[in-house]
Amino acid sequence: MNKISQVPAAVDPARPAPARIYDYLLKGANNFQADRDAAERIMALVPEIRDCAWANRGFHQRAARWIARRGVRQFIDIGSGLPTVGNTHEVVQLVDMRCRVVYVDNDPMVREQSRVLLADHARVRAVLGDLRGPDYVLEHPDVRALIDFSQPTGLLMTAVMHFVGDEWDPWGLLERYLGALAPGSYLSLSHLTDDQKPPLAVKEFCRVFDGATEQVHFRSKPEVERFFSGLEIVPPQQDAPTGSLCHAGDWEADDPARSDSDGSRWLYCGVGRRP
Ligand SMILES: C[S@@+](CC[C@H](N)C(=O)[O-])C[C@H]1O[C@@H](n2cnc3c(N)ncnc32)[C@H](O)[C@@H]1O
Fold first, then answer.
1. Is 19 in the pocket of ligand 1 (CB under 6 A)?
2. pLDDT tens digits for 9-63?
């Protein structure tokens, strides 16, 4: 079952898409049979993948709240995904109602569903844009309308860079976004890893995306750390002595004893501050 009433012309329901696969893993209803089939194939390979999706979503929300509590009042959420429980604007506006959020995603379904949800929100916009085109994204009128580039910004890029292949120079793209932001801005990023994972499961996981709208690219810890070049990585827990990447569940975990799950270990994450 799905609750999609309007399917944008650019969307092919027969082709799995990351946003809708993720929605299915999070038990949402904005997905088609092709997405559910793809998600089920991944679940057969990696039974803890649903836990991985929840661990990622938890990190996304905790990091956004943490950044808002540091006084940041504007956010660009790139690869934002379909609206779900605890959307970014809901999380940060609980810290301060004046927080502004621009959602950016290259899936027309995300744009369509977000537009319905956000119709009454003056401080929130949803942009259809591909992160591989930073000039388009950074110059988009909706981005310019809500983001004051002279002030610190929270740049949220959770579970999206693994859909960008090396041939696009994802590190260079991120530098381009960070370069546009004021000192005191923050990056929050999470990324799938194949470190210490069964190679066959990883290979078959990638193959599920062969016919999808995007392909998936696992990266090692040093490769994910490279996204934070030039940033001060913040300690992942209050009592941690230094800043470093960690697995998604461990970042500012409410209950550290239960956060280190098998699912969480498929993702590195971190928050970095632009000096
Ligand atoms: C797994 S979801 C993550 C959603 C959300 N960021 C989170 O962490 O909960 C990945 C999202 O990235 C989007 N995406 C993938 N490649 C993208 C690209 N090149 N530009 C913009 N969005 C992209 C997908 O459409 C999808 O909505």
1. yes
2. 888 999 999 999 999 999 999 999 999 999 999 999 999 999 999 999 999 999 9
Site of tokens 């999070």: 26
pTM for the model stands at 0.96
Structure tokens, 5: 């009433």
Cβ atoms 134, 173 nearer than 8 A: yes
Measured CA to CA, the distance from residue 229 to residue 274 in angstroms comes to 10
Placement of tokens 């690869």 in the chain: 79
d(C-alpha 53, C-alpha 141), whole Å: 32
Q: How many residues does the chain have?
A: 275
Tokens representing 256 are 């550290």
Report CA(79)–ligand 1 centroid distance (Å). 3
Place of tokens 């800043």: 243
For residue 140, how many other CB atoms are within 10 A of its CB? Answer: 18
- With a 6 Å cutoff on the Cβ, whether 250 touches ligand 1 is no
Beta bridge partners, 271, equal 188
- Residue 246 sits at φ, ψ, to 5 deg, of -150, 180
Residue 113 Cβ < 6 Å to ligand 1: no
Structure tokens at 232: 């001060």
Lowest mean pLDDT across 4-8, 101-105, 196-200: 4-8
Sign (positive/negative) of CA torsion 5, 33, 265, 186? negative
**Cβ atoms within 10 A of the Cβ of 24, count?**
24
- Nearest CA owner, ligand 1 atom 8: 158
What gap in Å lies between CA 232 and CA 243, rounded to an integer?
Answer: 7
Query: Which tens digits make up the pLDDT trace of 117-135?
Result: 887 889 999 999 999 999 9
